[in-house]
Amino acid sequence: MNYQEVISFVRENPVCAIATTEGDQPRARLFLAVLFDGDDRIYFSTGSMKKVHAQIVANKKIELCFWKPDYSQTLRITGNIEIVDDRAKKQKLLDEREYLKAFNSNADDPRFVLLRVPHGSASYWSMESNMREGEAEAVTF
To answer: Which residues span the domain enclosing 20?
Structure first.
């Protein structure tokens, strides 16, 4: 397994669960990953008014779980997430994603936050490896 295989898996299965913490309470919700051409990092967007933003600001550690639609394989990524100030990438998302229209197509809107996972560790899970989680090969990026 290599990092390009991880990126391919995310490209084919972009919906994931993202886990953060609020104090000592884990919080999980679904997100849609974004991959930009020419950039091999995983991105997300959120709003600064949302609890998930406050949780990320307080603790950058996250875990992601992507899965195939038939649930035959999942991909777990553990890492830190960072806030990215890239107006061009923000504008591209605002132009392409209908669900982001609340930000009035304005990449300078301070409520619109772009997030990226710059480094981390990724490993796969399947039913065949279910009882051997500790043996899962990991890719560090």
So the answer is: 3-140
